[in-house]
Amino acid sequence: MLTTAEQMAWEFLSKAPHYAGPDEVETHFARAIAAFGYDRFCATLINADRYGREPPTLSRQDFETWDARYWSERYVVHDPCVKLLMKSTRSFAWSDARPFSDNKRADIMWSEASDLGMNDGFVVRVFGPAGHLVLIRMATEALDTDPAARAVIESLATVFGTIMLKHWELQDDNPDYGVISERQAQCLHWASRGKTDWEIGAILELSPRTVHHHIENAKKRLGVAKRQEAVMKAGELGLLGKG
Question: Can you give the pTM of this predicted structure?
Answer without folding.
Answer: 0.72
